[in-house]
Design goal:
Elements: H1 3-21, E1 29-33, H2 39-47, E2 52-55, H3 58-68, E3 73-76, H4 85-88, E4 94-98, H5 101-114, E5 118-123, H6 140-146, E6 153-159, H7 172-188, E7 197-199, H8 206-211, E8 216-219, H9 221-224
Parallel strand pairs: 1-2, 1-8, 2-3, 3-4, 4-5, 5-6, 6-7
């Protein structure tokens, strides 16, 4: 399939998932995960009208940023080391992987110095897998209390990754769990404004994630493809 064909296919699948769950397609944002494609392909993605792009490692993103940083809205979706905060801050509009106090402190410190606000998603390990980063659901309330004084960080949502399943339906409890956690946190009023966003769902399971309330889906292979060595 060409890029345009993949975009059309994803749009149709998003629309069907929204229709199945009574949602408006305007409530679902698609992020093109470009970490496995070349600079040329990323340029084509932006030229095709996809506004949101995502990278997971600064060392891989840097040449792309230098060439294309004035285009699109950039999301950082990988595990962010504190010593890389200086590199990504101000370039990526959203950080999807806030998962520890030390990172929050560094983000706030650097954002304070730069006079900017950081829009962040808390990464939550709903599935409890040892191989995944993220706060446990039980840790999230105290984490939010712990960063409440960091006025340069705006928690806009929660993010999770489900286990890779051959049957996407098996991921539903993970996505439902994140939505329910968001609602529980909002009932506790731990943030200045209610948490609205849910970043969940990837190429193999995004339709189930949408049915469970995803507002951002992170799509790589199904949308932009995969290039060896990119």
């Amino acid at each position: 399939m060409t890029l345009q064909e993949r975009i059309a296919d994803v749009e149709a699948r998003v629309a069907r998932a929204c229709a199945a769950s009574g949602r408006d397609v305007d409530g679902v944002n698609v992020i093109a995960v470009t970490k496995y494609v070349s600079l040329d392909t990323m340029s084509a993605v932006l030229e095709a009208g996809l506004e949101h792009v995502a990278e997971s490692r600064w060392q891989d993103a840097e040449p792309k940023w230098k060439a294309l940083g004035n285009q699109g809205t950039w999301h950082f979706i990988g595990h962010l080391q504190t010593n890389k905060v200086k590199d990504v801050l101000g370039k990526f509009a959203y950080i999807h992987s806030l998962d520890r106090i030390s990172l929050a402190k560094e983000l706030h410190k650097k954002a304070e110095a730069a006079g900017i606000e950081v829009k962040a998603f808390l990464q939550v390990n709903i599935s409890g897998e040892d191989t995944k980063f993220g706060l446990s659901p039980e840790e999230v309330p105290d984490f939010l209390r712990g960063i409440s004084a960091f006025h340069r960080i705006k928690v806009v949502g929660l993010m999770t990754m489900a286990p890779h399943e051959e049957d996407p339906e098996l991921t539903r409890p993970v996505f439902r769990g994140l939505r329910e956690l968001r609602d529980e946190l909002n009932a506790l009023a731990l943030t200045p404004e209610p948490i609205q966003e849910l970043s969940m769902g990837m190429s193999n399971d995004f339709e189930v994630a949408i049915q469970e309330g995803a507002t951002w889906v992170r799509l790589g292979t199904v949308l932009v493809g995969h290039e060896e060595g990119a």
